[in-house]
Amino acid sequence: MATRPTAVVHPGALLTRRQRIVYILILGALVALGPFTIDLYLPAFPVIEGDLGISQAAVQLTLTATTIGFGVGQLLVGPWSDRVGRRLPLIVATSLHVLASIGVALAPDIGWIAVFRVLQGMGAAAGAVVAMATVRDLFGGQPLVRMLSRLALVTGLAPILAPVIGSQLLLVLDWRGVFFFLAAYGVLVLLSAIFFIVETRPKESRETSDRTMAQRYGAIFRDRIFIGVAVIGGMSFSGLFAYLSASPFLFQDLYGLNPQQYGLLFAVNSVGIVIGTQTSARLARIVGPQWILAFSTAVVFVSSSAIVVLDLADAGLLGVLVPLWFFITAVGFGFPMVQVLALAGHGSEAGTAASVLGALNFGLAGLISPIVGLFGVSAFVMGLVMASTAFVAVLSLWFIVQPKTVPELSR
């Protein structure tokens, strides 16, 4: 049975408007490190394929390696940050990211690239976990919705903008130079963490001997709502990354776009992410997050199914682009609500909860998205994978989350 929302005072309420803006900017930069690490080199896929003399599937596996590393890294960083605080894991992991980025840039073959991409993903994981855990340390209820909507904007926008930036970098750099650029960005994030991130998990709040890692994970996995929304988030990311991993070959090789036109396509799609994340955050003031997810998951399924149908009807490039824009917008619409429902009931283990959510998002995406390459890149295969993940998300909402049982958020 739903409970009445109550007024609760959270530490973030003491922050001034200016301080909140600073937090949004810095935490947004931390969150963006992961998607930039994963997606900045997407426009270079065909170049890497030719330069190293490898197959499309082999290039896509470097993307898989990164997402798996990102997922594993979050599982390590999350519980660690609950135990020792947020800053130390962030500094150590981001340093690893910088070194691994340089390793990729200097790697002699695809095998070493894959190894360093796993390490790069593990290093980038800290930004996402610490950012979400920090917001949960400071906020709850409706303020949590508003802050997470800003981070969700970055979470959704960064994977879309990264290939745009990557396509422009390729005008002046080779594909190895893109990874030197990532190393430089990692250094900036590291310096921001050192000089601007304040510890939001005080020593007295860190659980050491009285609560083990197993107990923290147990509290999360006994939460039916958390499990359900984590599946929704994982399936949404998997559908999005199926598109991201296939798009370089689909739009550049099959439809003949150059890297800059390909980047422009991503820029247009980024508008959908902005509309989706910010609209849902405002709507959540009057509508429960679970009902927003009901709408977004339905649109994701319908729009991805439309890609399949229109490709079979030989509708051409527009038959992919139009439903794709609605797909991306709907995914953005649901992102903040997934994070809010997953973290709302887990303030005492926010780092662990954020790590599980992120690991499922990127781990499932890393496992599912290469399917498009294995069956041959086409709009039909891409749309079919996207529709399948969307269908699982719909089932998870109605049979695991069960929207009518979700409590209302505090004000």
UniProtKB/TrEMBL annotation:
Name listed for the protein in its UniProt record: Bcr/CflA family drug resistance efflux transporter
A biological process term (GO) from this entry: xenobiotic detoxification by transmembrane export across the plasma membrane
UniProt cross-references to PROSITE patterns, sorted A to Z: MFS, SUGAR_TRANSPORT_1
Membrane topology summary: Multi-pass membrane protein
Major facilitator superfamily (MFS) profile domain segment(s): 21-405
Classification via Pfam families: MFS_1
Keyword Transmembrane part of the UniProt annotation: yes
The organism of origin for this protein: Marisediminicola antarctica
SUPFAM superfamilies in the cross-refs: MFS general substrate transporter
Superkingdom, natural source: Bacteria
Intracellular or extracellular location(s): Cell membrane
GO molecular function (one): xenobiotic transmembrane transporter activity
Key words, A-Z: Cell membrane, Membrane, Transmembrane, Transmembrane helix, Transport
Annotated family: Belongs to the major facilitator superfamily. TCR/Tet family. Belongs to the major facilitator superfamily. Bcr/CmlA family.
Residue intervals passing through the bilayer: 21-42, 54-76, 88-107, 119-139, 151-172, 178-198, 225-244, 264-284, 291-310, 322-344, 356-375, 381-401
